Amino acid sequence: MASYDLVGNIAIVKFSKGIKKGEKKKFGNKLLKEHKNVRTILEKSGKFSGRLRTLKTKYVAGEKNKEVLYKENGCEFRLNVDTCYFSPRLSTEREEIAKQVRKGEKVLVMFGGVGFYGIVIGKNSRIGKTGRIVSVELSRECNKHAIENVKRNKVSVEIVQGDVRRVIGKGGEISRGFDRIVMPRPNLKDSFLDVAFSVIKKGGIIHYYGFYHEMEFKAGVLEELIELEARKAKKKVKILSMKRAGDIAPYKYRYRADLRVLN
Fold first, then answer.
1. Alpha-helical runs (H) found in 125-246
2. Spans in the chain with pLDDT lower than 70
3. Is 81 a member of any domain?
4. 50: in domain
5. pLDDT tens, 83-109?
6. CATH code of the domain containing 160
7. Hey, is 207 helix, strand or coil?
8. Which CATH number belongs to the domain containing residue 22 in this structure?
Protein backbone atom coordinates (compact mmCIF):
# COMPACT_ATOMS: atom_id res chain seq x y z
CA MET A 1 0.00 0.00 0.00
CA ALA A 2 2.72 2.46 0.99
CA SER A 3 6.40 2.90 1.83
CA TYR A 4 7.83 5.76 3.82
CA ASP A 5 10.96 7.51 5.09
CA LEU A 6 11.19 8.92 8.60
CA VAL A 7 13.03 12.22 8.51
CA GLY A 8 13.16 13.63 12.02
CA ASN A 9 9.71 14.93 12.91
CA ILE A 10 8.29 14.24 9.41
CA ALA A 11 7.29 11.03 7.64
CA ILE A 12 7.32 11.16 3.82
CA VAL A 13 5.05 8.50 2.35
CA LYS A 14 4.93 7.09 -1.16
CA PHE A 15 1.47 5.62 -1.76
CA SER A 16 0.57 3.05 -4.39
CA LYS A 17 -1.59 4.27 -7.27
CA GLY A 18 -5.33 4.31 -6.68
CA ILE A 19 -5.22 4.91 -2.92
CA LYS A 20 -8.07 7.23 -1.91
CA LYS A 21 -7.63 10.39 0.15
CA GLY A 22 -9.46 8.94 3.16
CA GLU A 23 -7.23 5.85 3.18
CA LYS A 24 -4.12 8.03 2.99
CA LYS A 25 -5.25 10.06 6.00
CA LYS A 26 -6.04 6.88 7.93
CA PHE A 27 -2.55 5.51 7.18
CA GLY A 28 -1.02 8.86 8.17
CA ASN A 29 -2.81 8.90 11.53
CA LYS A 30 -1.63 5.34 12.14
CA LEU A 31 1.98 6.44 11.57
CA LEU A 32 1.53 9.33 14.01
CA LYS A 33 0.44 6.87 16.70
CA GLU A 34 3.25 4.42 15.96
CA HIS A 35 6.04 7.03 15.87
CA LYS A 36 5.72 9.46 18.79
CA ASN A 37 8.48 11.77 17.53
CA VAL A 38 6.74 12.25 14.15
CA ARG A 39 4.38 15.21 14.00
CA THR A 40 3.73 15.61 10.27
CA ILE A 41 2.81 13.15 7.52
CA LEU A 42 3.49 14.20 3.91
CA GLU A 43 2.85 12.39 0.65
CA LYS A 44 5.62 12.21 -1.93
CA SER A 45 3.74 13.48 -4.99
CA GLY A 46 6.59 13.45 -7.51
CA LYS A 47 10.20 12.47 -8.09
CA PHE A 48 13.25 14.58 -7.27
CA SER A 49 13.54 16.86 -10.27
CA GLY A 50 15.71 19.60 -11.77
CA ARG A 51 19.31 20.47 -11.13
CA LEU A 52 18.49 21.37 -7.52
CA ARG A 53 16.82 17.97 -6.94
CA THR A 54 13.70 19.43 -5.33
CA LEU A 55 10.77 17.29 -4.22
CA LYS A 56 7.02 17.93 -4.25
CA THR A 57 5.00 16.79 -1.26
CA LYS A 58 1.37 17.07 -0.14
CA TYR A 59 0.02 17.36 3.39
CA VAL A 60 -1.67 14.19 4.70
CA ALA A 61 -1.98 14.35 8.51
CA GLY A 62 -0.64 15.94 11.69
CA GLU A 63 0.88 19.41 11.86
CA LYS A 64 1.02 21.41 8.63
CA ASN A 65 4.76 21.81 8.43
CA LYS A 66 7.57 21.11 5.92
CA GLU A 67 10.50 22.19 8.10
CA VAL A 68 12.27 19.15 9.51
CA LEU A 69 14.72 18.77 12.38
CA TYR A 70 16.78 15.67 11.68
CA LYS A 71 19.57 13.95 13.65
CA GLU A 72 22.24 11.53 12.45
CA ASN A 73 25.85 10.64 13.29
CA GLY A 74 25.81 12.92 16.32
CA CYS A 75 24.74 15.91 14.21
CA GLU A 76 21.52 17.93 13.97
CA PHE A 77 20.13 19.45 10.76
CA ARG A 78 17.22 21.70 9.85
CA LEU A 79 15.85 21.94 6.31
CA ASN A 80 12.70 22.30 4.21
CA VAL A 81 11.85 18.95 2.57
CA ASP A 82 10.37 20.63 -0.54
CA THR A 83 13.23 23.01 -1.30
CA CYS A 84 16.32 21.07 -0.18
CA TYR A 85 17.36 17.62 -1.40
CA PHE A 86 18.00 15.12 1.35
CA SER A 87 18.29 11.35 1.70
CA PRO A 88 18.35 9.78 5.19
CA ARG A 89 19.46 6.58 3.45
CA LEU A 90 22.92 8.09 2.91
CA SER A 91 23.66 8.44 6.63
CA THR A 92 25.90 5.34 6.61
CA GLU A 93 27.72 6.69 3.54
CA ARG A 94 28.44 9.95 5.31
CA GLU A 95 29.74 8.12 8.37
CA GLU A 96 31.95 5.82 6.27
CA ILE A 97 33.62 8.71 4.48
CA ALA A 98 34.03 10.74 7.67
CA LYS A 99 35.94 7.88 9.29
CA GLN A 100 38.41 7.84 6.39
CA VAL A 101 39.37 11.52 6.80
CA ARG A 102 42.71 12.01 8.51
CA LYS A 103 44.23 14.82 10.57
CA GLY A 104 45.10 17.92 8.59
CA GLU A 105 43.27 16.92 5.39
CA LYS A 106 41.79 19.54 3.08
CA VAL A 107 38.33 18.25 2.11
CA LEU A 108 36.03 19.57 -0.61
CA VAL A 109 32.36 18.57 -0.79
CA MET A 110 30.70 19.28 -4.13
CA PHE A 111 26.88 19.50 -4.22
CA GLY A 112 26.93 19.99 -0.45
CA GLY A 113 23.21 20.62 0.10
CA VAL A 114 22.38 21.78 3.62
CA GLY A 115 25.83 20.71 4.82
CA PHE A 116 25.32 17.01 5.59
CA TYR A 117 28.63 15.58 4.38
CA GLY A 118 30.75 18.51 5.51
CA ILE A 119 29.23 18.67 8.99
CA VAL A 120 29.32 14.89 9.56
CA ILE A 121 32.99 14.92 8.52
CA GLY A 122 33.67 17.85 10.86
CA LYS A 123 32.03 16.04 13.78
CA ASN A 124 33.12 12.45 13.18
CA SER A 125 36.59 12.55 11.60
CA ARG A 126 40.09 13.11 12.96
CA ILE A 127 40.61 16.13 10.71
CA GLY A 128 41.68 18.37 13.60
CA LYS A 129 42.23 22.12 13.69
CA THR A 130 44.81 22.04 10.90
CA GLY A 131 42.31 20.57 8.45
CA ARG A 132 39.87 22.39 6.19
CA ILE A 133 36.37 21.51 4.97
CA VAL A 134 34.69 23.39 2.11
CA SER A 135 31.10 22.65 1.05
CA VAL A 136 29.78 24.03 -2.28
CA GLU A 137 26.09 24.14 -3.20
CA LEU A 138 24.18 25.89 -5.99
CA SER A 139 20.88 26.44 -4.14
CA ARG A 140 20.65 29.63 -2.12
CA GLU A 141 17.91 28.09 0.01
CA CYS A 142 20.08 25.08 0.90
CA ASN A 143 23.06 27.30 1.63
CA LYS A 144 20.98 29.36 4.04
CA HIS A 145 20.18 26.18 5.97
CA ALA A 146 23.80 24.99 5.69
CA ILE A 147 25.10 28.15 7.39
CA GLU A 148 22.59 27.66 10.22
CA ASN A 149 23.46 23.96 10.52
CA VAL A 150 27.19 24.69 10.79
CA LYS A 151 26.47 27.03 13.71
CA ARG A 152 24.06 24.54 15.25
CA ASN A 153 26.69 21.79 15.24
CA LYS A 154 29.62 24.02 16.21
CA VAL A 155 31.93 22.77 13.46
CA SER A 156 34.35 24.53 11.13
CA VAL A 157 32.94 24.16 7.60
CA GLU A 158 33.21 26.83 4.92
CA ILE A 159 29.91 27.19 3.04
CA VAL A 160 30.17 28.46 -0.54
CA GLN A 161 27.15 29.23 -2.71
CA GLY A 162 27.56 28.80 -6.45
CA ASP A 163 27.86 26.55 -9.49
CA VAL A 164 30.76 24.12 -8.98
CA ARG A 165 31.93 24.84 -12.55
CA ARG A 166 32.27 28.55 -11.76
CA VAL A 167 33.58 28.65 -8.19
CA ILE A 168 35.99 25.69 -8.31
CA GLY A 169 39.25 25.62 -10.29
CA LYS A 170 40.79 28.16 -12.65
CA GLY A 171 39.20 31.57 -12.24
CA GLY A 172 37.09 30.45 -9.27
CA GLU A 173 37.40 31.29 -5.59
CA ILE A 174 38.26 27.68 -4.69
CA SER A 175 41.66 26.62 -6.02
CA ARG A 176 43.70 23.42 -6.00
CA GLY A 177 45.15 21.68 -2.97
CA PHE A 178 42.50 19.24 -1.72
CA ASP A 179 43.42 15.86 -0.24
CA ARG A 180 39.89 14.50 -0.55
CA ILE A 181 36.84 15.39 -2.66
CA VAL A 182 33.34 14.07 -2.01
CA MET A 183 30.96 14.14 -4.99
CA PRO A 184 27.35 13.25 -3.99
CA ARG A 185 26.28 14.62 -7.38
CA PRO A 186 22.73 14.78 -8.72
CA ASN A 187 21.60 12.27 -11.35
CA LEU A 188 22.73 14.37 -14.32
CA LYS A 189 24.64 13.55 -17.51
CA ASP A 190 27.60 15.72 -16.47
CA SER A 191 30.05 13.74 -14.34
CA PHE A 192 31.84 16.90 -13.08
CA LEU A 193 34.98 14.76 -12.68
CA ASP A 194 37.01 17.29 -14.68
CA VAL A 195 36.22 19.88 -11.99
CA ALA A 196 37.40 17.53 -9.24
CA PHE A 197 40.57 16.62 -11.15
CA SER A 198 41.46 20.31 -11.47
CA VAL A 199 41.80 20.83 -7.69
CA ILE A 200 42.82 17.44 -6.26
CA LYS A 201 46.34 16.92 -4.92
CA LYS A 202 48.68 14.20 -6.12
CA GLY A 203 47.73 11.13 -4.10
CA GLY A 204 44.33 12.58 -3.25
CA ILE A 205 41.10 10.60 -2.95
CA ILE A 206 37.84 11.25 -4.83
CA HIS A 207 34.57 9.70 -3.69
CA TYR A 208 32.43 9.73 -6.84
CA TYR A 209 28.71 8.84 -6.97
CA GLY A 210 27.06 7.61 -10.18
CA PHE A 211 23.64 6.22 -11.07
CA TYR A 212 23.36 3.04 -13.15
CA HIS A 213 21.20 0.06 -13.96
CA GLU A 214 22.86 -2.98 -12.40
CA MET A 215 23.56 -4.45 -15.85
CA GLU A 216 25.38 -1.25 -16.88
CA PHE A 217 27.44 -1.41 -13.70
CA LYS A 218 28.35 -5.05 -14.25
CA ALA A 219 29.37 -4.18 -17.83
CA GLY A 220 31.95 -1.72 -16.48
CA VAL A 221 30.29 1.54 -17.52
CA LEU A 222 31.38 3.34 -14.34
CA GLU A 223 35.04 2.30 -14.70
CA GLU A 224 35.02 3.36 -18.35
CA LEU A 225 33.67 6.80 -17.44
CA ILE A 226 36.32 7.36 -14.78
CA GLU A 227 39.15 6.24 -17.06
CA LEU A 228 37.87 8.40 -19.94
CA GLU A 229 37.59 11.53 -17.78
CA ALA A 230 41.01 10.86 -16.27
CA ARG A 231 42.62 10.65 -19.72
CA LYS A 232 40.96 13.91 -20.76
CA ALA A 233 42.34 15.60 -17.66
CA LYS A 234 45.75 13.95 -18.18
CA LYS A 235 45.47 12.22 -14.83
CA LYS A 236 46.39 8.70 -13.78
CA VAL A 237 43.96 7.12 -11.33
CA LYS A 238 43.62 3.92 -9.37
CA ILE A 239 40.12 2.75 -8.52
CA LEU A 240 40.35 1.59 -4.91
CA SER A 241 36.82 0.27 -4.48
CA MET A 242 33.27 0.44 -5.80
CA LYS A 243 30.08 -0.26 -3.90
CA ARG A 244 26.34 0.02 -4.13
CA ALA A 245 25.16 3.03 -2.12
CA GLY A 246 21.38 2.84 -2.31
CA ASP A 247 18.59 2.03 -4.75
CA ILE A 248 16.74 4.66 -6.78
CA ALA A 249 14.46 2.48 -8.96
CA PRO A 250 13.97 -1.23 -9.74
CA TYR A 251 17.41 -2.61 -10.69
CA LYS A 252 18.86 0.92 -10.73
CA TYR A 253 21.24 2.00 -8.00
CA ARG A 254 23.50 4.75 -6.72
CA TYR A 255 27.12 3.53 -6.77
CA ARG A 256 30.18 4.98 -5.06
CA ALA A 257 33.62 4.71 -6.59
CA ASP A 258 36.65 5.60 -4.47
CA LEU A 259 39.66 6.53 -6.57
CA ARG A 260 43.16 7.75 -5.89
CA VAL A 261 44.71 10.32 -8.23
CA LEU A 262 48.33 9.31 -8.84
CA ASN A 263 49.72 12.46 -10.49
1. 140-153, 164-167, 193-197, 214-218, 221-232
2. 1, 46-53
3. no
4. yes
5. 888 888 899 999 999 999 999 999 999
6. 3.40.50.150
7. strand
8. 3.30.300.110
